[in-house]
Amino acid sequence: MVLSYHRVNPWYKSDALTVNIEEFKKQIEYLIFKKFKFLKADEYISTGNEIRKKVLLTFDDGFADNYWFAYEFLEKLNIKPLIFLVVNYINTDKIFLRYKSVEKDRFLNWKEIFDMAKNGVEFGSHTLTHPHLTLLSEEKIKEEIINSKKMIEDKLGKEVKFFCYPYGEFNKKIEEIVKKSGYKKAFVTPKRFRRTYYSNFTIKRVGIYGHNNFLIFKFKIWKEYLKENF
Ligand SMILES: [Zn+2]
Fold first, then answer.
1. CA of 96 to the centre of ligand 1 (A)
2. Which of 12, 31, 35, 137 could be a cystine partner for 18, CB 3.0 to 4.6 Å?
3. Is a pLDDT exceeding 70 seen at residue 50?
4. What is the Cα–Cα distance from 109 to 16, expressed in whole angstroms?
5. Per residue in 97-111, pLDDT tens?
6. What is the distance in A from the centroid of ligand 1 to the CA of 216?
7. What does DSSP assign to residue 205?
């Protein structure tokens, strides 16, 4: 299964995108205790059901708190997450409208990204500006998908293989552009009560949110495990 997180920090108690640090650690340790195996993105994609309890950990948006609060913990466990960057937010003071503090709510800078990349953390594209792709012209969609890939590749000197749709919004045409742009896979967290187009190219993830208590977390994990294996 592929898990999707956004933020990990000690500050926000009622922010859906923030999972408290202690809660996050407890969740990861639980998966290890239950013999789930954390794989790197490439390994995850290239293996089939021979590894039944495989997990890929992903973070959306590229918040700096991934580096501050999750990275060291994951390093110690040799877990290499896949982080999806909003490229035009890197190295800037820009923050999402829902947040207030430029200090706490900023996104990763290149120095932090390099530091993680050299230790095996994988980076994917989450577009340039985090738009609603389905509302854009084809030209704009291409710009968001192609330029973001190229910019990360130029900085890291490494192929960017994975893409993640902002807000989980996409359609067949958008997926086709992602595929043609050279990405190997796309990721999405399905929205509840909304039907979307799905294919083998786009991998569905289980979204873990701040309001999910430990019981809900376990429920989500085992529900997904059953869905994938039986
Ligand atoms: Zn996002």
1. 10
2. 12
3. yes
4. 23
5. 999 999 999 999 999
6. 22
7. -
- Between the CA of 60 and the centroid of ligand 1 the distance, in Å, is 5
How remote is the CA of residue 224 from the centroid of ligand 1, in Å? 22
Q: Which domain holds residue 102?
A: 2-229
Q: Is the pLDDT of residue 193 over 70?
A: no
What does the pLDDT look like over 116-148, one tens digit per residue? 999 999 999 999 999 999 999 999 999 999 999
Alpha-carbon Rg for the chain, nearest whole angstrom, is 17
CATH number, domain containing residue 64 = 3.20.20.370
Amino acid identity of residue 40, one-letter, is K
Q: Full-prediction pTM beyond 0.85?
A: yes
* Å from CA of 166 to ligand 1 middle: 5
Distance 181 CA to ligand 1 centre (A): 20
